[in-house]
Amino acid sequence: GGRRGTLQCFAAMDDGENIDVDLGSALERCSGDLPLLSQVVTETMQTSLDEQVPKLRQAIAEEDVTQVHFHAHSIKGASATVGFLSLSAAAKELDDIAKVGSLEGAGGLVDRLEVEFKRALEYFEKHTKGIDDALGRCGGDTDLFYTIAKEMADSVLPEQLAQLEEGVTGKDTGLISGSVGQMLDASETIGAYFLSHLLKQASDDTTKAEKLFEQISVEVSRLASFWGNVDAEEEDDDDE
Length: 240
Known about the structure:
By secondary structure, the protein is an all-alpha fold. Helices cover 75% and strands 2% of the residues. It has a two-stranded antiparallel ribbon. Helix 1 (23-29) packs parallel to helix 9 and helix 4 (85-99) packs antiparallel against helix 5. The longest helix is centred in the middle third of the chain and has 32 residues, at 106-137.
């Protein structure tokens, strides 16, 4: 198959592993409605984990290749729709072996699938809590918060990232330190949990900024995609 042309959005989890996620596209499919995205992600993931994973294990125990293919294929599609691409890839591995009539190594693949489920749910929980906390600091004013977050993600953070890149390229510790500090303020303002997590590491040690620059850059792009797809206009339908 063709490679995806979009930027691979690998986010660093607290366990040091990366998770391939694209919530911006998932949000676009929810017409920019954040509460709807939360509902769809939580329900889709929890239902798949609670209902389909046990059925997968049962089908493997019964050597029912057809059922393994059915459930793995369903999880692969559903998780991709809600933006969890690592999880979808894990389901695809299981789907691929079942498609050719084999269940060799299937038990280990289901174990991996379950780990990816839990990591995806943890990721989404932290992502959502970060936004909710930041919204609370805005006094719960959704319109104000969305306006600030969109501007931060669209222009402020990318401009600060360009400064950080200049600092990293020129090994200018003063510029690195200043840029990281500004970016950390901006990311905490909009509740960007994973970007804040990376920037805190970089602020403790400026030499880490160079090592983490690629991840920071990806996270800034991911935020631009996510907030760019948030619909801040509640009354869109009424505008002519």
